[in-house]
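Sorry to interrupt, but I need a hand with the structure work. Please put the record directly below this note.
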Amino acid sequence: MSPQEERLWFPSTGFQQNGRNMQREEQSGNREGRALPEEVHGTTEQHIHELELQTAERADALQMLCDVASMANHAQDVEEATRYCLERVGQHHGWNVGIAYLPREGPPYRLEPAYLWHSADAERFRPLAEVTHGTPVGGLDDQPGAVFQSGQPLWSTDLGGTLDRRRFAVAAALELTTAAVFPVMAEERAVGVLEFFSTKRIEPRAEVFDAMASVGMQLGRVIERKMFQDRLLTLSEDEHRRIGQELHDDVGQELTGLALKAETLAEMLDGQGAAAGKLARDLVVTIDRIRGKTRGLARGLVPTEVGSPGLPTALEELAHRMGEERQVACTFHQRGRMRIRDSRIATQLYRIAQEATANAIANAPDSQVDIVLQSDEDATLLEIRDGGPGLPRGAGDGDGMGLRIMRYRAGLIGARLAIESPSTGGVRVTCRLPKPTLEEPGK
């Protein structure tokens, strides 16, 4: 038997032994001068063809799972990872459209369409994505909610019994007949849902459920990692707030009391010797300076309420404070209306501006630093720029601690951070936060 033929034998099919028996019969028949019937040769070729198809399907499935696992190991953004899974699974299994759901903040049983969908025929199936985005997902009244609560997949060829009225009307108009919904799992609980549709009537198969269980687990790892990072950042912000509050309430009050005592001492020593009086007055000045620095640290750790519209106010105060403390020209400019409703996102943008402004002042202490916050219908853009000498070659791709922290914070909120030296000079740090839209798949 040739190596190529040897690869076609699979013990689980029972064909290996049959094939060898046929081979022995053929050899025996040849020795006896008898030819095997044509149907025996036809059966052998049919088995080989079936095994070739099975082998190709298994190889494609394995490649798909390897691709998803590789993505999960390197993904830093949940939306990108989810979009990749929708595209890759749809491509492999031939689904016409896939839609992702992620839990919203609040009760754990609530889901919302995550602005993420994929279709090879975007224009045709866009109405389903749009009506899905406008439909609230409840508990057990619809298939994504049911799968999210139970953690079990659902397969339906009766869409009228599993979709809500609005979505069913659109699905029927698009001639969709089969829906499959799979949970995204992390630590034995659902953290998201992937929903797929097809215009063909497809019966459920065990290998599809097995493959999607693996895809759901890999995507769940990405979401779980993101949730863990968010929790770490929340703890960090809580600790910042606690330390800042203690600096303001405890250390600040102690320094105020100490300053009053020093002033009293200076007044008492004023007529008892020039040296002692001067020392006391120097002590008052030093305490006042320390108190001002402590107040600045407290404000940096606990900024003005960051949110919408608190973010512009906080950034304006940051520019004023940094300019006073470092004795540099630092300004804030706002362009467009801010619509950042998530205080977590606003806080991360503030922290990025805080780090970038400090770096700009340290690297270009004699130049002006500008903080710009602008918004349009597509994105919110935060920009910090200075007029210094610019970056050394390749510095924007470095792994300095400050740059890594800023990139990390940007990644947590789905933003993109870039640092460059424009042709006009200086350094420009930009953080671009896209606004949620029903984008064309693949963009």
Remarks:
- The longest strand covers residues 189-198.
